[in-house]
Write a structure and sequence with these properties.
Helix content is about 40%, strand content about 15%. By secondary structure, it is α/β, with parallel strands linked by helices. Strands 1, 2, 3, 4, 5, 6, 7, 8 and 9 form a 9-stranded parallel sheet that branches. It contains 13 helices and 9 strands. Helix 1 (about 10-15) crosses helix 8 (about 200-215). Bound molecules: S-adenosyl-L-homocysteine. S-adenosyl-L-homocysteine (SAH) binds next to loops.
Length: about 350
């Protein structure tokens, strides 16, 4: 079953229609397709936020180097291993290492860590560490890393260069990396924020088209959550005409459309969704096409300092209680935790 090849106008209509019934049909169609392709399993990927240090200046992100209001931390390798053991104990198939762009975690230190994690835990290892060099990504692949997440944030190059100032003028770097990493043998994930200031329906529709053109294995989307410690945290300009809202409802439409265009992709219910609606966010996304959750396994002493945006869900709840809450939520939805690493889904029909 191949994805539906929606043209831009169609996608734009789905994104903007005011008719509740059409939206509800869209979400239901995505939910049905999800159950036929990737099934009822929800893959759990333990998220370890290994460092909040960052040398970049993204206008949307609280980790930006200019933000002096958060205490900075860099986990020790043994602390990361300990967190990964928790993932294993809880039965998760994957550990996700995420951080700001922090060269204090050198290429070789990350390589050694990956080797150790693979040997000891046999978990799938996903990297979400930003724009590191191809040499580094290649050495990490050889060390056993399985997947990379690197969101392209927006397909609109002008908007991108404004909110994600490039290094060495290379605006295309994330798109190039996505292609190179795929050919290195990584499973590759990307995504965007929904409702980023300046994002119109045209731009968001193009983002969704691009997910399938890039043939992504994983697509993560979440609402943009303004962070008062960043330049985009305060409304300083009037919204552009046709500005997309940064809401759960809008994000659910994007998840559903992503599922319909990429039937076999792994699509997480992201933490930003849970930040806007801690009670129902995950269940709503899992009923609109999503099939992955990334429970936070960052040690409590660091967790609240990984402050990309405010209002992070489960910011001060122990890993065990987050795990149990998620498990009971899944079973009340008739969904079950995934078994195994939850890797690339191949088309069987
Ligand atoms: N340094 C890594 C990981 C970044 S954090 C990288 O750049 O790839 C992961 C994602 O969080 C980002 O890609 C971005 O899409 C999202 N994010 C950052 N700030 C946000 C905000 N204010 N609201 C919602 N999502 C945000």
């Amino acid at each position: 079953m191949n994805g539906v090849d929606f043209d831009l106008n169609r996608i734009r209509e789905w994104l903007t229609t005011g008719e509740e019934e059409i939206v509800s049909e869209l979400l239901k169609a995505a939910d049905r397709l999800r159950s036929e392709t990737v099934g009822d399993e929800v893959h759990l990927r333990g998220l370890v936020e290994v460092s909040n240090r960052c040398m970049r200046s993204c206008l949307y992100c609280g980790l930006r180097s200019e933000n002096s209001r958060i205490p900075r931390y860099r986990m020790q390798p043994y602390e990361v291993v300990k967190a990964a053991r928790k993932a294993k104990t809880f039965g998760y198939g994957t550990v996700v290492l995420q951080s700001g762009e922090d060269y204090g975690w050198s290429g070789s230190k990350i390589e050694t860590l990956i080797r150790h994690l693979k040997e000891e835990t046999e978990l799938a290892v996903t990297l979400s560490l930003g724009e590191r060099s191809l040499d580094e990504y290649s050495s990490w692949k050889k060390a056993g890393a399985d997947r990379v997440l690197i969101r392209f944030e927006t397909s609109d190059r002008k908007l991108l260069s404004k909110v994600h100032p490039a290094i060495k003028d290379d605006e295309e770097i994330r798109f190039k990396l996505l292609a190179e990493l795929k050919s290195m043998g990584y499973e590759v994930g990307s995504g965007v924020m929904v409702g980023l200031p300046g994002q119109t329906a045209d731009v968001l529709a193009r983002d969704i088209q691009l997910f399938s053109e890039l043939d992504l294995d994983m697509v993560g989307v979440g609402p943009f959550v303004p962070n008062p410690e960043t330049p985009l945290g305060w409304i300083t300009e009037p919204p552009v005409s046709g500005q997309m809202p940064a809401t759960i409802e809008q994000t659910l439409r994007v998840i559903a459309l992503t599922r319909l265009t990429l039937p076999w992709a792994h699509i997480p219910s992201t933490s930003a969704i849970a930040a806007l609606d801690p009670e129902l966010g995950h269940s709503r996304a899992l009923s609109a096409g999503a099939n992955v959750i990334m429970p936070n396994l960052t040690p409590l002493r660091y967790r609240s300092n990984y402050a990309i945006y405010p209002g992070k869900a489960f910011a001060d709840e122990a890993e065990e209680s987050v795990h149990h809450a998620l498990m009971s939520r899944l079973s009340s939805m008739g969904r079950r935790p995934g078994v195994g690493v939850g890797g690339k889904m191949t088309q069987r029909v």
